[in-house]
Design goal:
The structure holds two protein chains of two kinds. By secondary structure, chain A is mainly α. Chain A has a domain of 189 residues: MetI-like (MetI-like fold, Orthogonal Bundle), CATH 1.10.3720. Chain A contains 13 helices and two strands. In chain A, strands 1-2 form a two-stranded antiparallel ribbon. Chain B is mostly helical. Chain B folds into two domains: 52 residues, no CATH class; 210 residues, MetI-like fold. Chain B has 15 helices and no strands. Chain B is globular and about 75 Å long. The interface between A and B is large, with 105 and 104 residues.
Chain lengths: 310, 279
């Protein structure tokens, strides 16, 4: 992601500034004039709450004061069926929705990359549109589309002579609906990123492979995909992090229900923190989510590194 | 396009277009349905067959929205908040990005580390402490509580830093020799060269603030201070949901974003890709 390039690019500017020592001290001051305001805001609104939340996760509110309870909140979390359910839901989306979406996005990107395609910019815009929609608008539209009585989806099923589905109120269908709407919203976004990755690979490379007698599929699997791997990894990691932080769709479409069927860790955190006002427990949930995100990203990086060595 | 295409190629190309059109329909139908639904009454929406063309209830729905959530006021709130946020946040990003790109100073590594860390920590970790902070400051239900905590924007800082890294040091040196102060140099010499990236950042920032939901939902609790997403959300929780009004509200909330996106598409997509491609 952005980490590698910034670090790598930083090297040339890292040369010590020319000039005498007092002059350098002055530029240090000037530098803080530029970077200071943002740094101050980060300290107040990022570093402090981050520390506060970590501390809070070891406390419990009793009679209006935070009491230190050690790991009790984390132990409670380990035996909380709702939290387990929310992790399972995230896991399901991570292992089913993310791969399906990335493959769909890859196919789309390859189609959009055909050299003879007309008005490529328009296609790209059309596919990207779902990602720029206002969240609430998007969830409202899907609520109306998926309404059990008379919603467009059920009317279409009816017209085809098929049965009706209780899209948002039965556990199974609610999962399908949430997964479907996430896919609708983010596939094009990933496709546009992958398309840019494809465009960065010189066309002469495919042409050379094609001249050597490789079929279309072969060209893609052995020439294009290996080079596209960093961009695919970027999409997989951002989608995975997005899945583990999933809140919007599940909160607005189903409020995590019915039961815990579409509960995600962050929707659960929100309910615990802001509906039950159990701040210590909410903080513990938050830090477990952070740990899981870090672990999943690390695993993905490791897998990626191993594949590259092959 | 001078050479003739063989029948097999033509067939293959047709197939690609068919798939693309089908995908585009999936992508666009919800938008179309939103536009159509906003011009019908709620009852008409769920008729069988459903309406496929615009109806005549646009004004009725608009007045309904104005009555139920004061939609005009809410739109202005959203616009004002998003504009103030965009200007301040982009300025801060540009300044901080410039400082990180062009100066070497004590604490630079730490600051860069913090910037990167904010991108990896989910917002939800900060929600409870931030909420408590705002509440002890007595800032609940104020606009500064909505805007201030997220003004420093890591994505923007990294984006601006990236674009300033390429700025030639010689020009800075010669501006210094000419006696221009550091701030003057920044505003008059450096900023103008980064205009495209700054424009992309501003579009991105505006959209993000316009769409922002959880934080304003937590901070604002009187109706005449609500932003569009928060106000629309109150409508979804009622026992008798006015779906047509909601669809119209959603359409009006989406239109500014669509317009911005279509105008600045190139810059916007380039900005998003900055991180993905230079890896």
């Amino acid at each position: 992601m952005t980490i590698t390039p910034t670090r790598r690019r930083a090297a040339p500017t890292s040369r010590p500034a020319r000039g005498s020592a007092p002059r350098r001290r002055r530029t240090g001051l000037v530098a803080w004039l530029f970077a200071g305001p943002a740094a101050l805001l980060f300290a107040i609104f990022f570093a402090y709450p981050l520390g506060a939340s970590l501390y809070q996760s070891f406390t419990e509110r009793r009679g209006g004061v935070d009491v230190w309870v050690g790991l009790a909140q984390y132990r409670r979390l380990a035996h909380d069926p709702s939290f387990a359910h929310s992790m399972l839901n995230a896991g399901l989306i991570l292992t089913v929705q993310v791969p399906v979406m990335i493959v769909l996005a890859l196919v789309l990107a390859v189609l959009l990359n055909q050299s003879w395609l007309r008005v490529r910019g328009t296609w790209r815009a059309v596919y990207f549109l779902p990602a720029v929609t206002t969240l609430v608008a998007y969830s409202v539209v899907f609520q109306v589309l998926l309404k059990t009585d008379g919603g467009l989806a059920n009317q279409a099923l009816h017209a085809l002579g098929l049965g009706q589905a209780d899209w948002l109120n039965s556990p199974g269908w609610a999962r399908v609906s949430v997964i479907g709407s996430i896919t609708w919203r983010w596939t094009g976004y990933n496709a546009v990123i992958l398309l840019a990755g494809l465009q960065a690979i010189g066309r002469e490379q495919y042409e050379a492979a094609a001249l050597d007698g490789a079929g279309v599929l072969r060209v893609y699997t052995s020439v294009v995909l290996p080079q596209l791997r960093p961009v695919v990894l970027f999409c997989v990691i951002t989608s995975s992090i997005g899945t583990l932080q999933l809140f919007d769709e599940n909160y607005v479409l189903t409020r995590g229900g019915p039961g815990d069927a579409t509960l995600t860790p962050v929707v659960y955190l929100y309910k615990i923190g802001f509906q039950q006002l159990d701040f210590g427990y909410a903080a513990a949930i938050a830090w477990v989510v952070v740990a899981v995100i870090a672990a999943v990203s690390l695993v993905q990086f490791a897998l990626y590194g191993r594949e590259r060595d092959r | 396009m001078n050479h003739k295409t063989s029948p097999v190629t033509a067939l293959r190309r047709t197939a690609v277009y068919v798939v693309l059109v089908a995908g585009a329909l999936v992508s666009l139908i919800p938008f179309y349905w939103m536009a159509v639904a906003g011009t019908h009454t709620s009852d008409e929406l769920f008729h069988s067959p459903p309406p496929f063309l615009p109806g005549g209830a646009l004004l009725h729905n608009l007045m309904g929205l104005q009555r139920s959530i004061g939609f005009g006021r809410v739109l202005l709130n959203s616009l004002g908040i998003a504009l103030v946020y965009t200007v301040l946040s982009s300025l801060l990003s540009a300044m901080c990005g410039y400082g990180l790109a062009k100066y070497r100073f004590r604490g630079r590594g730490l600051l860069l580390g913090v910037v990167l860390a904010t991108m990896m920590i989910p917002l939800q970790v900060l929600l409870v402490p931030l909420f408590q902070m705002m509440s002890s400051l007595g800032w609940i239900d104020t606009y500064q509580a909505v805007v201030l905590p997220f003004l420093a924007n890591s994505f923007g800082i990294l984006l601006m830093r990236q674009s300033f890294l390429d700025f030639p040091d010689e020009i800075l040196e010669s501006a210094r020799i000419d006696g221009a102060g550091e701030l003057r140099t920044f505003y008059l010499v450096v900023i103008p060269t980064a205009r495209p990236q700054l424009a992309a950042l501003m579009v991105y920032t505006f959209m993000a603030q316009w769409n922002s939901f959880i934080w304003p939902l937590l901070m604002l609790n009187t109706q005449d201070k609500y932003t569009v997403p928060v106000a629309l959300n109150t409508l979804t929780g009622l026992t008798h949901v006015d779906y047509a009004g909601l669809m119209l509200g959603s359409l009006l909330a989406t239109l500014p974003l669509l317009a911005l996106f279509l105008v600045f598409q190139r810059q916007f997509v380039a900005g998003l890709l900055g991180g993905a491609l230079k890896g």
